[in-house]
Write a structure and sequence with these properties.
The protein has seven helices and 24 strands. It is an alpha+beta fold and 414 residues long. The strands form five sheets. Strands 13, 16, 17, 18, 19, 20, 21, 22, 23 and 24 form a ten-stranded antiparallel sheet that branches. The protein binds zinc ion.
Length: 414
């Protein structure tokens, strides 16, 4: 990344200097009349007044060290740090970020001393700290003019998401953004050949020319494991500060878990680390929640995910394990039979039937033992706090459904 920022910066500078060079030569060939050469400016300062040092923040390097290395005394550095502390946190300069020092010789001095420090916060923003006059230090944060260009892309997975994006000359940042949007829906570590996504997003350019990465993702469609997963960016407050992604029916993509894997039934045994089991006559922790229901009652996946295990053991009986995202997996035990078409690798949506209640394995009656895994450890599903995820408000739903029509059509026709 650092290199990219540096590249962008040097590229901008190069472009600027090229432009000027061309202008100057052109002017030299013009009529004999004397024309004053245009004085070049950098960040609003006359270039010919300063000695310019361009570098990047090195690891563990402090603001003070940079200035001191460039011949500024510590009392002055301290003064600057004190004066700017409310507007610029010098501790927050980041390794690898580019900066510029404009230095100048004072009248009786042989060495040039820094007068202006320009820090590139991001490719889009920079901060100018002007201490030319040590008694009136000025800090200003500036934004570069940006231009958004609406883009569409569609990619069929052939090798891996990153490789395929690269092959299509698309930014890897797109993969990051998509994996955030679809964190509860698509397992990006197990994409299949032939999975496909379409996306409508903004590309951001600085000063019209320098690519600065991607902006908003307006909408996307992931065709994953043969199922369609739409995502539409939509404001969640009236002022438009907040937003979330919703599917074609206004459901949130950040799925919560269903409270139970059964539509009906009752909790017959809770998660309990100190359960006494009659069957064994000893304490054996119960790491699941039991839902009792008649044999044959459909068992549903409690969230979107991928089937990672389908099998039979003496204890579990017929069971299925589903991975939902990097953090959560769930497991369903004692099934009488599996649902048709469910295999290891199957993509399931929340509420899809994966099997049926039974009494296979160690059990005294028909029930599903529902196990909840967080970061590889079993936890109590009923006590697990989930990230809040609200669907589109029912009052706003008709408007939402109308608002997404145009962009949905655009996605579908890509
Ligand atoms: Zn159980």
């Amino acid at each position: 990344m650092t290199r990219i920022y540096l590249l962008i910066l040097s590229f901008t500078l190069l472009l600027l200097s090229c432009n000027r060079e061309i202008k100057t030569t052109a002017k030299l060939e013009l009529p004999k009349k004397e024309i004053k050469p245009e004085r070049k400016k950098i960040y609003g300062y006359f270039k010919d007044e300063f000695q310019i040092t361009q570098d990047t923040i090195r690891r563990n390097e402090t603001f003070g060290e940079i200035l001191n290395r460039n011949h500024l005394d510590y009392p002055d550095i301290y003064k600057i740090a004190q004066k700017i502390k409310d507007t610029f946190n010098i501790k927050k300069i980041k390794t690898g970020r580019p900066y510029l020092l404009l230095s100048k010789k004072d009248s009786l001095d042989s060495l040039a001393h820094p007068k202006v420090f320009i820090y590139e916060n991001t490719p889009l923003e920079y901060t100018i700290i002007d201490f030319n006059n040590i008694d009136s230090i000025r800090v200003s944060k500036k934004k570069r003019p940006v231009k958004k260009l609406r883009k569409t892309a569609q990619v069929v997975i052939e090798k891996s998401l990153y490789q395929d994006l690269t092959d299509h000359q698309l930014s890897p940042k797109l993969a990051m953004e998509l994996s955030n949007i679809y964190a509860w829906t698509v397992d990006f570590f197990h994409l299949n050949k032939g999975d496909k996504f379409k996306v409508i997003y903004d590309d951001i350019y600085i000063d019209d020319t320098v690519y600065a990465g991607i902006g908003k993702i307006h909408a996307a469609l992931f065709q994953y494991g043969g199922k369609n997963f739409y995502a539409f960016r939509y404001p969640t407050d009236s002022l438009g500060y907040d937003y979330d992604y919703f599917d074609e029916e206004g459901r949130t993509l950040r799925k919560q878990f269903l409270k139970a894997p059964l539509k009906f039934g009752r909790i017959s045994s809770r998660y309990n680390m100190h359960r006494y089991i009659k069957l064994y006559g000893r304490i054996k922790p119960h790491l699941g929640t039991d839902f009792a229901a008649p044999v044959g009652t459909p068992i549903m996946s409690t969230a979107n995910g991928v089937v990672v295990k389908k099998g039979y053991t003496r204890g579990n009986g017929r069971y299925i394990k589903i991975k939902h995202n990097a953090t959560y997996s769930t497991q369903y035990l004692h099934m009488s039979k599996f649902a048709k078409g469910i295999h290891v690798g199957s993509v399931v949506k929340q509420g899809d039937v994966i099997g049926y209640v039974g009494m296979t394995g160690y059990t005294t009656g028909p029930h599903v033992c529902y196990r909840f895994w967080k970061n590889g450890r079993q936890v109590d599903a009923l006590k697990e706090k989930m990230p809040p995820a609200k669907p589109i408000d029912s009052l706003l739903l008709p408007k939402y459904l109308k608002d997404i029509q145009t962009i949905k059509k655009e996605l579908d026709s890509l």
